[in-house]
Amino acid sequence: MTxxxxxxxxxxxxxxxxxxxxxxxxxxxxxxxxxxxxxxTAPTKNAGPTKDDHxxxxxxxxxxxxxxxxxxxxxxxxxxxxxEVKSDKAEAEASDVAEADPWDAFASAPEERIGRPRRILxxxxxxxxxxxxxxxxxxxxxxxxxxxPTLRYPLxxxxxxxxxxxxxxxxxxWSGHALLTDPAHLFQSNTFYPEKxxxxxxxxxxxxxxxxxxxxxxxxxxxxxxxxxxxxxxxxTFGAYALVRQLGAxxxxxxxAGVGYAYAPWLLSQAGHLHIVSNGGIPLAxxxxxxxxxxxxxxxxxxxxxxxxxxxxxxxVASWQITLGFGIGLPFAYILxxxxxxxxxxxxARRLFVWRAKRPFGWRLxxxxxxxxxxxxATGALLAIPFFKxxxxxxxxxxxxxxxxxxxxxxxxxxxxxxxxxxWGSLHEPARATLTAQAEMTLLPGYVLYALAxxxxxFSIWTVRQRLLLxxxxxxxxxxxxxxxxxxxxxxxxxxxxxxxGWEGLRTPGRLMLWGTLLLCVLAAGxxxxxxxxxxxxxxxxxxxxxxxxxxxxxxxxxxxVLVEGLNATPxxxxxxxxxxxxxxxxxxxVLPSDQGTDQNVMLWSTTRxxxxxxxxxxxxxxGLAKTRQAAESFPDRxxxxxxxxxxxxxxxxxxxxxxxxxxxxxxxxxxxxxxxQREDVGDVVVYRL
Length: 690
Known about the structure:
disordered N terminus, 8 strands, elongated
């Protein structure tokens, strides 16, 4: 049957194409009447198709002049198939030629299959050259050099003096021993016999208990202490570096921050207080929390970078930091507790006032924060229980406002370096003489750090608002660090002392300078990073684009200056050796003379057997120990022997080399047979068995 194609332009074009293919005429589908053809000639009237021009068969073949026979249709079909076969042969021949292309010999080799051992080696190699690995190794090497000669004679010497450090060496040893033998009585230590909860008389350094499980005796305790002392500086350097890098600073700026935080001159006076030097967990935890929440100062909040694992790790590191002591851990807990509601309120404010604000939490991150926050809170609460017990049993241990006045530094303290500073120590001797508590009032963070921080107020990678906030925080910390020296502390320190639980136990406001130093380091990192960025821009204009030696030196000068200002002149005295008699003497025992310094040595000596000893040193003097010291002044006589027997003492050891100028200088050689006790000379000590 025939079909009218004139009304359908598509069909018209298709029919014309088919006609052209059969007749061999030019392909001019759809050319309207009156227009020129392809050769510029005018078409005839009948150039356009009409209803009689074409007919379509059932199988789609189109014939000319109205109809097409089956033979013509089959012929056309056979010709088309023949053309297709020829085309396929041509393509196959072209393919063969392409396969034989000699340039194929230069093609890339197939990817080599790598076995598990080689994959492990490659991954290890990448890890060894990673920024964080290099930063950790550099922090460790720098800690060994900057604390030298701590590791020169680690079995015999100790940094600063052999009073408080020997107490802290005992603390690590006791915690490890107690957790291995009798964890239920961890806080009932072998010192201050017969007092209860005696392990909580001072900051406990409980976080170092795993190290305390290794080795026994005084020499092992000294070696352990010296290693931990060096590692504490390495962790502080690495933690501050990681935090400032996470905030958005460059590598050189972060290095300046790490060194400035760990080796600030004022910290040299705290070399005898390991619980203060062990502050690296603070910036490290903050870095992990910021990384886990995908936040930095320079780039803002980036939800695609959040990671629940890092957030949880941050909370765990913060919990570990709390276990090292509340001296710096308590302010950290309050600051971290303040950051949480501020962050939540800020987010809700953005949701209310900023259209389509990004959600900062997924379920996984929210659960990590809840779990980590609970661990942190539970750790703080559990550790607070023994301290509250001590406060209940010894209410006089609470720090009074008078204690704060003694240790509150004046404004000039922020410019005075301690005697342990190799650069400024001797130069600042006259200024230190005006201070009542030099170790707690020499608070210089470093003149270079001051200069870099001030420069960071004007030339920095941080925004102007961020710089102003950092400045405001630094000023606030400085005012709090002055304690009662700033308008009597009525508007700064005393409100915290009166209203925050546990704050009354902090007698040294100057230790808040740790936070001031950290903020100064962030400001300084901003200026140094801006300097490094500028150096890179100048280097990009060179041919080749590589920084010259002067540009390299310019970016390293701030780091070198901060390092030089942190050099120490810390003494490393030889620790008195343990008397041989204490290795075999049965407890409970009393060592005479008994005073704060000697008792701290006795605590270290007791690490061989951990027998109960009456002696002990801490931040306060228990009334029981005070009465025992007073009763023992007449030892050996009937009254003192009866008193000591009454509290359970079985052995008294008198140190001959320390009795000069004491009541025992004359009585140590008196006969004791009438008293019913035994006396024996063992080396340089006299042992009395009651």
